[in-house]
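Exercise (ungraded).
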Amino acid sequence: MIDFGYQINKGRTINLDVDRAPLKELEKVVPSFQSCIRCGSCTATCSAAQFTDFNIRKIHTKFSAGLHDELAEMLKPCMLCGKCTLVCPRGVNLRALVVNLRKILKEKEL
Amino acid sequence: MTQYFNPFVIPFTVGVLLLFGICVFKWVRWVRQFDRLQRTLLRKNILSWKFIPAIWEVVFEVLFHRKVFKRSFVLGYMHTSIALGWFLLIVVGAIEASTAIAGSHPLWVPIFFKYFGKELPHFQGELFFNFLMDLLLCFVLSGLLLAMSKRIYSQVVGMKKATKHVLFDKFTMISLWLIFPLRLIAESVTANRYHNGGFLTQSLGELIRNIFPIVSQNAFWYFETTWWLFYSLALGIFFTAMPFSRYMHILTEPFLIYFRRLGIKEDNKPTGFTKFELSACSRCGICIDNCPLFKELNITDVQSVYLLREIRYKRLKEEIANNCLMCDRCVVDCPVGLELTKIRRQTRYKKELDTAGNYKYVDDIQPFNAIGRVAYYSGCMSHLTPGIAQAMYHIFEAAGQKYWHIDAEKTICCGRPLLQQGFEQQATDLRRKNTALIRESNATMLVTSCPICYQSFKKEYKLNIPVMHHTEYIDKCLKEKKISIEKQDLKVAYHDPCELGRGCGVYKAPRNVLKKAVKLVSLKNEKDKSLCCGFNLGNTAIEKEDQKKIRDAALQNLLRKKPDIIATACPMCKKALMHGVDNQVKDVAEIVSENLQK
Ligand code: SF4
Ligand code: SF4
Ligand code: SF4
Ligand code: SF4
């Protein structure tokens, strides 16, 4: 085979067939989360992220992809200070998101 | 004794006995549910002189409804005429009965005096008593008329929105409403027969008889005891329903006032004292009108009156508990002086979600040696408004004051936002760290720029140094002539942040400072009546679009006199306001820093 310096990836399987119920539940109490564009402003300004690798965008992105592993633990460093909520360009109510996410994860034992 | 008995007194007597039985049972149980601090205060102060001002307050609030009068004269009159009028009917009735009857008589006689006193010999002052009792009844009836019209059209008493009552409250209310008209009819019928009425009952008696000429006089008189029975039934039903309805406030409020005078307050957890507070709410609905959630968003089921009712009937929904800005506007308005936002906070307690050890990452932050310095805590939000911290640096330097900016780079939150959402343990963890940092630094004073932090440090921390908001600090520096400012010819409207104003009572300091720097205009809603900027961290239930509506209302109030600049004293308020208006929005510190005299 001639090496053109790039290659075509093999077909991959990504499981998007995940449980959507927790996300739906969150979107019901925090409707603004639907307008998140994953820009990361929240993480950039986060008070807790100054001390740790706490990353609120990563957490909510994983959650909306249906990856719930360890999220409950990962959410704990948040201090609910509200800086993220104030800077979010899409008006996502991030404090409500943190509180309700923790609640949903607890209730569903995820 | 039989002379003073008629079977119609039974419903009344049973009602009174039940009422006091149930009340005493409840009160004793509640007092036993006081927590340790509340119990100690009760034991220590129970026999102190403090009961004198308490009695005073009970008279002014429970009988005269002073605070309701302040809100609206008609509303005050409505409450006072019923409360004071009824109270006087009982007292004057008792005096009348003991003047007329030598020796003892059963407890119900004053209540039904016109009936039992009808064949007594004339006594001194009889005519006077007849007149006075009729006058008092008129007084009560006039209030009743207002109360009824309030139910139909609340603007009569100056209220935009009256409380939506539960069925049981409506039932109890109707039994209360019936008491006085029934008393009027019963007394009139008796007066017509025995000529012992006053100006009202006597003439009404004649009138009734003339309206129903078909009924022969004997038959009409035959119904006399029936009317008295109806009156007694209305009383009995009302008294029995009272402890379970909103009218429990009548008997509970005096205790609450007394306990408060002894220094007892709400705690983080609900206690027996909370039960007194819940039952002392009259569901008057005064807390609804000025709630920004009602005024700007037309949300009508989350206000304090509903919160308290739902807690009392043990069916509070989380949505109600969460949907509140914690702006304290209702606390200022509540005529009973209930600690409404504290009670709401109790209901938000997160239980197993509120975990310990979440913030281990702040553990290894080392304290700074700040002997002789002022510790300056600008707060998380100020990191989005760095101009405020810059201005404070400038002011500290001008005043020749060395400072240590605790959270210059990394910010540990004060913990109040967590506490307001019911994460007590987590908030405690943050407080512990901040306390250690501040204590070990040996700083002489703590100055904060964020009113949320300020309220937290003032009320939730136990620091051994004075805590000041930066407006207070600047005011002090100006008074001590450590700094001076040049006055500018600018019109400025000042926005009171909820947490600084209503939360901590700091109204004067920012105004003192601004008056020296600019021309301060007065506003329609200011000081404790100021409007929330909508972005208070107390609420997690409403979304940005709604917050903006509340903010716009606050801006409207600020812009009425066309100021050049809007001033405030909170990074959060500043951020909230500046995005909704063309005018410049500045913190008091920034205005001062710009105009410092060299
Ligand atoms: S700042 Fe807002 S829009 Fe951006 S990632 Fe965070 S939540 Fe999403
Ligand atoms: S509220 Fe939580 S996630 Fe948002 S900035 Fe503060 S610590 Fe970070
Ligand atoms: S909370 Fe206060 S203002 Fe509101 S209904 Fe109760 S007593 Fe009235
Ligand atoms: S604290 Fe403010 S938002 Fe909450 S109920 Fe009272 S007035 Fe309404």
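Further reading is listed at the end of the chapter. For now, observe: The pocket of iron/sulfur cluster (ligand 4) is lined by residues B 291-293, 303-304, 324-330, 341 (CB under 6 Å). Chain A has a mean pLDDT of 92.
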